[in-house]
Amino acid sequence: MWQSVSAIPAAQHDARLIALLHHLHLVQWIYLSIWRREPPAITEAKSYASADAVKAWARPYYSQAAALIDSMDEDRLAGIVEFPWADQIAQRYGSVGPATLRETIAQILLHTTYHRAQVATRVRDLGGEPALTDYIAWIWMNRPRPQW
Predict the structure, then answer these.
(1) Which of 4, 16, 26, 28 could anchor a disulfide with 131, C-beta 3.0 to 4.6 Å?
(2) Residue 52 has pLDDT above 90, yes or no
């Protein structure tokens, strides 16, 4: 995804794309904070002058999240996650059912995939060639490491 963004000069300062990239990665960072039982640090898209600035901020998430998840045993993965915004969700929808850490990891994967597709659309709108976003294609390619 990031290679396709970086290949388009116009993408560097496209406010819509920067906001989308920021949101995608902000949610990842927020969940990582929750998994660590730390207060989340909220940033704003306007704090980043370019797509590359968002990329620099986002990149460390992956190694940190992988290290944390790799350190967890089955009991921790099956444990219930407490969300700081649970009361707001309960007010809006009537209740909040419990979510396990494993389920929240799946949520981050699904959320990221959804927004990667939006990034692909924006990259195409800006005249670029979007990255392949299919999970199975990544498997078929022998799970290559990201190329930032």
Answers:
(1) 4
(2) yes
